[in-house]
């Protein structure tokens, strides 16, 4: 284990050193990448996801998640999970996005409601992009048709559910993990101020990763939009979808669907941050190999069932930035300052206690 950790540290150090060399040798390209990431945050991430983070946090806190998760109990039962609270993680992931789902999985594990294997299965089922991003961001803003976005959202949820059921028969039960018993910890609701603070934190983290990976992907942009999509496909889903929408091919929907399935390294890092280190992400990573063809199949199937939606889709390039880079920077800094103020307030409260 220590040897694996040392190799990870060395690999991370080498990647950071290479990125630093790129930044020092060509700072102009780095600036363009950061500006592109900030534009993506302002045009897609903040307007489509911040309000949804606030509303979903209120609806899915406390008993709300249990009430809304009743329809998904057959799914978790098919995965071999008996905890009545387990479907709430899938609901949080499907409605609030992968960050909300990973956070709920972590809470269920800490409450001893689920085992590590069950946590990995719930991550497979709940790690999707939320409807605010897929329908409003990718569908409406990038592809010009929100209905296409809803079809892709339904396709990724169906693919994630099937992958979770399949892997429930494949993953072995970890030793010492089968005897976990449900604890007495009960989830509590949150008010509007807590929901806004949580939404600011999630949005800031998301925008930070988007901006970072936009900086990295900027160095491959001169090589062509195809290369940019190929690189962003493994790095960051937002920029991959933007590259797909800006491409000249007629496969924009399929390219966006593939990017949403792969998620990219940025999403996996965020899932790791929210889910904690106790639950392994290897099953989630391996499941993407099965999820990708299922995602493409369901997307094609749904668009064939509803041909009017397919014909109404605007296939030409519709993505356009509207705000200047300085406005994007101001909004990003405001989010960071708001999160900093919330953190300082929590520190002072802990000191008083």
TrEMBL record:
Coiled coil (residue ranges): none
Signal sequence bounds: 1-30
TM regions (residue ranges): 46-70, 120-144, 150-171, 251-271, 283-303, 323-341
Keywords: Membrane, Signal, Transmembrane, Transmembrane helix
Protein name: Sporulation integral membrane protein YlbJ
Organism: Candidatus Ruthenibacterium merdavium
């Amino acid at each position: 284990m220590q040897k694996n950790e040392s190799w990870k540290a060395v690999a991370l150090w080498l990647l950071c050193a290479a990125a630093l060399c790129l930044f020092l040798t060509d700072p102009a390209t780095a600036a363009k990448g950061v500006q592109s990431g900030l534009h993506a945050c302002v045009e897609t991430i903040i307007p489509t996801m911040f309000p949804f983070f606030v509303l979903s946090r209120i609806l899915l806190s406390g008993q709300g998640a249990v009430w809304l998760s009743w329809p998904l109990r057959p799914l978790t039962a098919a995965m071999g999970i008996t905890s009545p609270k387990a479907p709430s993680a899938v609901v949080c992931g499907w409605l609030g996005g992968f960050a909300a789902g990973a956070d709920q999985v972590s809470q269920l594990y800490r409450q001893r409601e689920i085992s590590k294997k069950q946590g990995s299965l719930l991550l497979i089922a709940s790690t999707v992009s939320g409807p605010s991003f897929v329908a409003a961001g990718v569908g409406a803003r990038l592809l010009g048709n929100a209905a296409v976005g809803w079809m892709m959202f339904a396709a990724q949820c169906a693919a994630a559910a099937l992958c979770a059921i399949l892997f429930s028969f494949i993953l072995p039960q970890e030793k010492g993990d089968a005897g976990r018993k449900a604890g007495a910890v009960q989830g509590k609701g949150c008010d509007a101020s807590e929901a806004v603070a949580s939404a600011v934190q999630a949005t800031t983290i998301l925008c930070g990763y988007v901006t970072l990976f936009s900086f990295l992907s900027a160095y491959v942009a001169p090589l062509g939009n195809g290369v940019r999509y190929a690189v962003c496909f493994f790095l960051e889903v937002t920029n991959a979808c933007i590259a797909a929408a800006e491409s000249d091919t007629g496969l924009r929907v399929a390219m966006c669907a593939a990017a949403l399935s792969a998620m990219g390294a940025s999403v996996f890092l965020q899932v790791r941050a929210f889910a904690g280190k106790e639950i392994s992400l290897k099953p989630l990573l391996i499941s993407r190999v099965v999820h990708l063809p299922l995602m493409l199949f369901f997307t094609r199937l749904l668009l064939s069932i509803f041909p009017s939606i397919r014909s109404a889709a605007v296939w030409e390039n519709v993505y356009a930035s509207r705000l200047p880079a300085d406005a994007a920077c101001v909004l990003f800094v405001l989010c960071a300052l708001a999160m900093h103020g919330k953190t300082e307030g929590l520190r002072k409260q802990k000191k008083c206690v």
